[in-house]
Please model this.
Amino acid sequence: MSRSLARAVPWFVSGALLVAAWFVAGATPDGEERITEPFPVAAEIGTPAVGRNLGVTVTDARLADRVTFGGWYAEGTWLVLDLEAWVVHTESPGALSAATLTVGDRVFRASERAQGYDSSASLFSTGLSLAVPQSGSIAFELPADIAADADAAVVRLAIETEFLGDSVIELPVDISAVERVDELELAATEWITP
Amino acid sequence: MDHAVTGARLTRWWRRNALALGALVVLVPASLFAYDALGFGAVRNAELTVSGDEPHAMGGMPAAAALGPVTISPLERDEVGAPRGSDPVLVTIRVDPGEGLSSCRGVTVTEPSTGRQWRTVFTGLTWVQEQGQEMSCVSDAVIPYDVVAPVLLSDDVVGPLVVTITTFDQPTGAVLDLRFTVEQ
Model:
C-alpha cells in the first residue's frame, strides 16, 4: 500500500461512518421529546388489544341521549363503550387512569359523573386485576353537534394519567355510524368470571 | 517490519490516546454506577431483601421495631367472593412496634420468575379484617400486631414469592422497600 493511500484510508472510513450515522439518525427517533411519546396499539370492537401493561376488549360502542345507573341518570349526548379490561404485568400501578375521546382538535375526558353515585358505574380510574379481567362501561359526555363532526374520532385508553412513554390503546370510532339509542343503562364493573 | 518498530508505534499510540483512555477509565465505572445506583433520575426507594421466615429488626437498634415473619395463606374463594381463575390469599406480616418504624403501607406480591406483581385488593372482595389485624402499620402501637393484605393472585402463580412493604421512619425520613422472600 502506498503512503498516500494509507493516509487516505482513515478519511474514507470516517466518511463512510458519517454517512452510516446519517442513515441511522434518519431511521431513529429524532430528539429527546420523542422519548416520552406513547406507543399506540390499534384496537377494534370485539378484538382484544394488548399493550405493555393494559389489555382491553371493547365489546360495544353506542350513542345515547340519556344514560342511567340504578337511580342515577343524566341527559345529553353520551358515547358509551362497553369493555373488558385487565393488566398484563403489574397491578401497581394498574388503574385505567386515562380515557379520552379525540375528535379533530377537541379532546373529551371520560365522565366521572355516574361514579359520584356509585363507583362501579364506570371502569374509568378503576384498579384493574392481573388475575381476571373486569367488564364495565366508560362514558363520554359530548356536545350535541358531535355526530355531525366530520373529523376522525379516536378513543385512547392507558394506565398512566397522561399518555407518556407507554402503550396507549387506540380505538377509531365513526361517531356518525354508531348506533344511537334514547336511553342506555351503564354496565356495572364486575369480574367476567364471577 | 521488525518488532522494535512495532513496539515503538504501539507505545506512541498509547501516549497519543492517553487522555481518551483516561476518560474511559473514569466514565465507564461512572456510567455503571449511574445506571445501577442512581437509576438515571428515577425515584426509587432503597430496597432490602430478607427472609420471610423470621423477624427483621429495623435499623439494628436495641429497641428497634421488627417486621416478620411473613406468611401467605389461602382464602376460600367462594367465601370472599373472588372470581373464578383467581387465587385469593391473605398476606400476613407480623409487626413488633419499636424504633425505626413510623408507618408502613403498600403491600405487593411479586412472582420473581415472571415479574408479575399483585397489590392489595381494597374493594370487590367480601373479606373482613379481624380483631388484631391492621391494613398498615400503627404508629402508636405498643404490642405486636399483624398487618394483613388480601391479594388476588392469578391461579397459575408459581412460588417462591416476594412480599414487599414500604416502611417509613419519621424522625430520620428514611423510606425502605422491605422485600420478604416467602415459599408458597
